[in-house]
Amino acid sequence: MTEIYVDADACPVKDEVIRVAERHRLDVHMVSDGGIRPYPSPAVKLVIVTQGADAADDWIAEHIQGADICITNDIPLAARCLERGALAIKPNGETFTEDGIGMALANRALMQTLRETGAVTGGPRPFSKADRSAFLNRLEVVVQAAMRR
Fold this sequence. Notes:
By secondary structure, the chain is α/β, with parallel strands linked by helices. The protein has a single domain (about 5-100, about 130-149), classed as Rossmann fold, CATH 3.40.50. It contains 5 helices and 6 strands. It has helices spanning about 15-25, 55-65, 75-85, 100-115, 130-149, and strands at about 5, 25-30, 45-50, 70, 85-90, 95. It has a 6-stranded mixed beta sheet with strand order 3-2-1-4-5-6, sandwiched between helices. Helix 1 runs parallel beside helix 5 (about 130-149) and helix 3 packs antiparallel against helix 4. The longest helix has 20 residues, at about 100-115. The N and C termini lie close together (about 10 Å). About 30% of the residues are buried.
């Protein structure tokens, strides 16, 4: 049975994930190192991990299975999920793929180096309504694909 794992600390689409999960009767694991509010939905399993740089990522990577879905912006976590045969999607609706994850990891390393040297400042563009809509559309497609596995 497909389950959804959410890297929940900074996820802007938690409510959207819950709506889709309830429609498909899927369990959602909201994984956080604290500071997340409980959800009244019976679909939501709140997982509080110990404080630490990658504690939530480690928990997700250890528990996710082949027919599951991870919601994250974290490229290394997405790579770990793909290695386990799971699907991974960003909150803006972009999917992580086996073909593209190597380039995404390399680009992440390059951008980190450029930020550390001061060559690049600033962060990603603000999350928009269009991103939220694209996420909802893509999550529906990904859920259906995962359930066919």
